[in-house]
Amino acid sequence: xxxxxxxxxxxxxxxxxxxxxxxxxxxxxxxxxxxxxxxxxxxxxxxxxxxxxxxxxxxxxxxxxxxxxxxxxxxxxxxxxxxxxxxxxxxxxxxxxxxxxxxxxxxxxxxxxxxxxxxxxxxxxxxxxxxxxxxxxxxxxxxxxxxxxxxxxxxxxxxxxxxxxxxxxxxxxxxxxxxxxxxxxxxxxxxxxxxxxxxxxxxxxxxxxxxxxxxxxxxxxxxxxxxxxxxxxxxxxxxxxxxxxxxxxxxxxxxxxxxxxxxxxxxxxxxxxxxxxxxxxxxxxxxxxxxxxxxxxxxxxx
Length: 302
Description:
15 helices; about 300 residues
């Protein structure tokens, strides 16, 4: 009975959008050629931020102990996700005549260490997309520290202030990414794709959405038009600024998605909707962890 009540109380639409988002991540990494590929990647840019956003949503008023458990679980998931990439890397080291011992020695460099600590780069072949799990682990640690310092049991975190700070960080992200690109220069995307400028801001905004969910539900905004408008804006930005980790249109899309999740909890009926909800609820981590491995193997077979 309790499990059925919990299932009925789930936000079906959020599960649906998470299911769509995980396939959006795959579309980003497939690398379709030409303008079509650029458009697909621009439309799918909402995917990874949406996972940070929903992780923050479900962390509202979480105790330090709960956040600590989530951090440990995320780290364990990262380690398990690294295992098949380690095996693939060892095999490729032999196949490409690099040598297993030489490849293992190449892992222990200052560049790899700094890349791991600062940008969550995993130094295995094809494993760079696992930065997300490393960043999520770091975000949980930051949020655990903030809850400890603020005494969450006595009054909670200043979610409104954190939301403002998050918007400032995202504005900095856009300036350093899209703004610098429009000025004719270029900045390495890994500088932007990290816990501080990507994970933590969206996580904080997710907490704020949960904190202000009643007020957001009462808003009579055309959330679906926000989503469509954000997607169109992302396409324009991709044309003007090239490939970026974040677009202004992405933020508009995320606002529309979160608004619809809070305003309309029930998802549309149908088998496709149910399949996406199942993926969003149960399979997102597994799909995210292994999809680059599958894409790599398919490339080698071809």
